[in-house]
Design brief:
Blueprint (H helix, E strand, L loop, with lengths): L2 H25 L4 E2 L14 E2 L22 E6 L2 E8 L2 E5 L5 E5 L4 E8 L8 E6 L3 E6 L5 E6 L5 E10 L2 E9 L3 E8 L4 E9 L11 E5 L8 E6 L3 E6 L5 E6 L3 H4 L1
Antiparallel strand pairs: 1-2, 3-4, 4-5, 5-6, 7-8, 8-9, 9-10, 11-12, 12-13, 13-14, 15-16, 16-17, 17-18
């Protein structure tokens, strides 16, 4: 074989091997940098694609700090203006200078819903959510838990609304994965939620799709009703104080009900 032809064959063979290697590398799975989940439902994960063969080493970071607070809500406690803050899985009352008045470090508080009045204007109670599964009330003065409620087994907190009227308040809850709804009435003198009603709405909507609710005066009597929406195609107006259905509508047309 002529030297020129032999050289050409060698070059072609090397090129083929290189091409095969590139093809093999492309077929290999790429490394993936799994970033921390951003919420309990894992709805906002942002993994970074790459070709890493080992776990990355963090050189610097921007964002979460174990000493930082995830929300801040001002509250009047005695003569002081303090702030309710969420720290990790707990809640604290902190003065502007950083002094901690009290803390509940492991109660699982996820958000402050609102402050409710008591007989003392300088000692409100705090309504908080406990993750996706419950609600609780705390004494703003010392952080003591005054009342709590947990969703039934197999259910989550779902949609809820708080209606404040002067010093009184109503709390309406419709757990997810249930056809039951319930309401509480806040007692300023007892500083806790008292059961008002609990009703079963089986046959009105599917248990695992909502329902969603708003509070609005639907019959113009000056009092809010519960406007409930669920699948398939259900709308209901319920009495806030009894849970009774005042009027409702269910679309039975299959294409619209979905």
């Amino acid at each position: 074989i002529a030297p020129a032809i032999l050289a050409g064959l060698i070059i072609s063979a090397v090129a083929c091997q290189a091409g095969q290697k590139v093809s093999d590398d492309a077929a290999k799975p790429k490394g993936l940098w799994l970033l921390p989940r951003k919420d309990p439902g894992n709805t906002a994960r942002a993994d970074c694609p790459g070709n890493m063969k080992s776990a990355p080493r963090v050189v610097w970071s921007y964002g979460h700090d174990s000493k930082s607070y995830s929300f801040v809500r001002p509250v009047r406690i005695g003569a002081d203006t303090a702030y309710l803050v969420r720290h990790l899985n707990g809640i604290q009352a902190v003065l502007p200078n950083g002094h901690i008045l009290w803390e509940q470090p492991a109660m699982g508080a996820s958000d402050v819903v609102d402050l409710l009045a008591t007989a003392r204007t300088d000692a409100p109670v705090i309504l908080v959510t406990l993750g996706q599964y419950g609600l609780a009330m705390l004494d703003a003065v010392d952080g003591k838990m005054l009342w709590s409620w947990a969703a039934p087994a197999g259910c989550k907190l779902g949609d809820f609304r708080l209606l404040k009227r002067d010093r009184n308040a109503y709390l309406v809850v419709f757990p997810v994965n249930s056809t039951r709804g319930l309401a509480f009435e806040y007692s300023p003198s007892q500083r806790r939620m008292l059961p008002l009603w609990e009703c079963d709405y089986t046959g009105k909507y599917w248990a695992n799709f909502g329902p969603h609710l708003v509070l609005a005066d639907m019959d113009r009597d000056g009092l809010e009703e519960i406007v409930l929406a669920g699948k398939p195609g259900y709308l209901g107006v319920l009495d806030l104080r009894t849970g009774a259905v005042k009027f409702d509508y269910k679309n039975t047309h299959s294409s619209l009900a979905e």
